[in-house]
Amino acid sequence: MWNKTSGLNQFYNDRGNEDGIPVIFIHGFPFDSSTWENQVVALPSNFRPVVYDVRGHGQSEVGDIPYSLEFLVDDLFALIENLELQQPILCGLSMGGYIALRAYEKWPGLFKALILCDTRAEGDSNTAKINRAHAIKTIWNGDIKKYAEDSVKNLFWSENILSKIPEIVQIKSIIEKTSPDALCAALMALAARTDSTEILTGINIPTLIIVGEHDKITPPIAAEFLHENINGSELVIIKKAGHLSNLENPEEFNKALLHFLENMQ
Ligand code: MLT
Asked: CA torsion sign, 95 to 185 to 169 to 43?
């Protein structure tokens, strides 16, 4: 299905019971909505899972470049408006978490709960900005395969690189299919995103924080910071998982997700 209200064709899939509580899953960079499949099929029937491809990712159009995180947040809002979702729960992984936090900052009354997975509130450090510049050069040089290969090494827990072959093939293939223009535009948007640390103490809706114990990109210390600053939040550390905790250990991830969803109502 396509959402056109944000000014470009944005792919989404609205699944489940129309009267259920909406849960919008927001994928990380540079993935797509298919990475949430294990979670979508696990949700009980009183929930309404909605997945979508962030602009430039998956099947969504690239649209105008450059990007800003603000545009990605506005696209989310357009989807919520278009589907007339009331009090959705936002579940974002990494970039999806940056989008969720900024969306909460812009419209604090709009959401029922937050699920922040393998993400952080702080903006990029100088080292992270420089690494993004290196990544852009690799992509400019036409080395998407190298970029995908390097990314996978950082994304997955080292032991999963040898055992989670279908997941690795899935992620590499998604990255290799992403438009180089969109990759570079998103990298610049991530480098320039705003810092959300100041809003954390004001978050007053149920919040679950999830992180893979071996996440190198947004490590457990970043999740602990979220947990310490968001009043009443719950923190779950997923064993045997790196940055892609929902893909690397879906059983433990889903246990945490379902327990939170069933108990926050
Ligand atoms: C992601 O998974 O969305 C990215 O690792 C986020 C980032 O690069 O900051």
From this structure: positive
Beta-strand relationship, 207-212 and 234-238: parallel
Q: Indicate which atom in ligand 1 lies nearest the CA of residue 95.
A: 3
CB 72 within 8 A of CB 54: yes
- List pLDDT tens digits, range 42-76: 999 999 999 999 999 999 999 999 999 999 999 99
What are the structural domains, with CATH classification, of the chain? 2-262 (3.40.50.1820)
pTM comes to 0.98
112, 87 in Cβ contact below 8 A?
Answer: yes
Choosing from 91, 190, 196 the residue with most ligand 1 atoms within 8 A of its CB, the one to mutate for a pocket test is 190
Which of 25, 26, 36, 94 for mutating ligand 1's site (highest number of atoms within 8 Å of CB)?
Answer: 94
* Confidence category of residue 5, pLDDT binned at 50, 70, 90: low
- 12 CA to centre of ligand 1 in angstroms: 21
Contact 89, 22 (CB under 8 A): yes
